Amino acid sequence: MHWWRQEGDGWTFAGASIDLRVGGRYRLGMTGPDGKTHVAVGVYRDVHPPVRLAFTWDWEEPSNRMGETLVTVEFKDAGDNRTEVVLTHERFAEAARMGRHEQGWTELLRLLERSVG
């Protein structure tokens, strides 16, 4: 709720529905400064706490759909009560979409770091 949004003024958390189990679905929303809500949807493929989480990713809005991609998040012990988070987002049909998602994930992880650090 505190970090699931784009960085910058006017972006807000717009709700989540999460069934965190292999085969379970999720729906995550954020609302932009223009009032438009963007919703990511997918299915969990691997749930292995506290080591790994993998899930499909697409956008609910027809104009944003890109086909099913795969996100894998790995959590590695970095010592001194720290965790390294390695996020891989793959299977993009269009390279241009990959760059925009890299920017979005970078912003989200930065907000997460601020909220727990």
Topology at a glance:
Blueprint: E1 12-18, E2 25-31, E3 37-48, E4 52-59, E5 69-77, E6 83-90, H1 95-116
Antiparallel strand pairs: 1-2, 2-3, 3-4, 4-5, 5-6
Q: Please count the beta strands (DSSP E, at least 2 residues each).
A: 6
Largest sheet: 6 strands, antiparallel
Rg, Cα atoms, Å = 14 Å
The stretches of 5 or more residues where confidence is low (pLDDT under 50) are: none
Separate helix tally: 1
**Span of the ends, CA to CA:** 16 Å
**Helix-strand sequence:** EEEEEEH
Shape: globular
Lateral arrangement of strands in the main beta sheet: 1-2-3-4-5-6
Mean pLDDT: 90
In terms of DSSP E residues, the strand content is 35-45%
What structural class results from the helix and strand content? alpha+beta
Helix content: 10-25%
Short description:
This protein has one helix and six strands, in the order ββββββα. The chain has 117 residues and is α+β, with helices and mostly antiparallel strands.
Task: Explain how this protein is built.
The chain is of the alpha+beta class and 117 residues long. 19% of the residues lie in helices and 44% in strands. It contains 1 helix and 6 strands. The chain has one helix at 95-116, and strands at 12-18, 25-31, 37-48, 52-59, 69-77, 83-90. Strands 1-2-3-4-5-6 form a 6-stranded antiparallel sheet. The longest helix is centred in the last third of the chain and has 22 residues, at 95-116. It is globular and about 40 Å long. It starts with 11 loop residues before the first strand and ends with a helix. The model has no long low-confidence stretch (mean pLDDT 90).
